[in-house]
Amino acid sequence: MTLSDVRRLPVSVLHHFASAALAHHGLPEEDAATVAEMMIEADLHGSDAHGLFRLPRYLDRLKAGGFNRTPQIRVDRSKGGLARIDGDGAMGHLVVHRCVDEAIARASDHGVSWVGCHNSNHAGAAGVWAMRPVPQDMIGIYMAVGSANHMAPWGGTEALLSTNPIAIGVPGGRDGPVLLDMATTNAAYGKIKMAAALGQDLPEGWMIDADGAPLTDPERAGEGTLLPIGGPKGYGLALMIGLLAGTLNGAALGRDLVDFNADDETPTNTGQSILVIDLKALGAPEFFKRQVDQIRKELSTSAKRPGFDAIRLPGDRALATRSDRRANGIPCSTVLIEALNRVAQGAGLAPLEFQQ
């Protein structure tokens, strides 16, 4: 793929398209609009493998009955700032949206909250959810069990863990928030799927085969496993996130995990958790945010190593990308447009066209 194969489409056009496609296949209009909004937030942050790229896969599962179209998402356990939500098999974006709303409300009352869920599904980019409390002067810490097992325990060959991401959103002052959004593997599996769709090889260090040799052909991804960040440290982090986002919530982990990419019908019982801290409970938010700006200044203006043009904080690129894409449209490859236009054909929608 070359730069000439990429054009930008307005956010409003893509939101209308995704909402209409989801509604055509049975999702209530309000829910369809919410899911479309959160998918596009992933694209706005530059998490292209978790945005509209996923729409055809979501629709396959929606049509097959793998998502509950009319769920009763509810709090089934709670105490103080703690709550657990039963997602009732809904699309994950709807379940986690409810989790974050619940966590923000409880943090407002208690200063801190922890809300997890079970009977959820794949919910897109982690950073999107960690950032939702930030405009309320709250810190968001989000964790999730991934949608399929692609990581072996350190020293093993059987894929028993997923990419299990973590994201942390921290409010900042005039210079903006800080956002960490990372999988516990060197690459999220969505990047493997995107590389396969675009006909690109994988860099060495992303995957290995059963013998431990580098695997660079994304079409052979099923024969290998993803490598954890930091070797055994990444494996340990993935396990602990799985216990906190999955097992603690009564959700799936290990061999119980359903491969979202290969199974359209079986309930996945995905687990996610979010921790929210209200800055107002610990002092003046403006004081904290000025301190964040000061730390940012110290880091970004410190001495650089040869070969580096700047020192950035986590999330700088994603948040700058969000501003650019909201103003100028979301870049869409020819491959993505073709896939979405197949969706359009199946939903009776007008095809998308590149904006020159």
From TrEMBL:
Q: Is the keyword Oxidoreductase assigned to this protein?
A: yes
Write down the EC number. 1.1.1.350
Q: Please indicate which superkingdom the organism of origin belongs to.
A: Bacteria
Q: Which UniProt keywords are given for this protein, alphabetically ordered?
A: Oxidoreductase
Q: What class of enzyme is it?
A: oxidoreductase
Q: Which GO terms describe its molecular function?
A: oxidoreductase activity
Q: Entry's Gene3D superfamilies?
A: 1.10.1530.10, Hypothetical oxidoreductase yiak, domain 2
Q: State a single Pfam family of this protein.
A: Ldh_2
Say if the entry is tagged with keyword Oxidoreductase. yes
**Of which family is this protein a member?**
Belongs to the LDH2/MDH2 oxidoreductase family.
For this entry, the protein name equals Ureidoglycolate dehydrogenase (NAD(+))
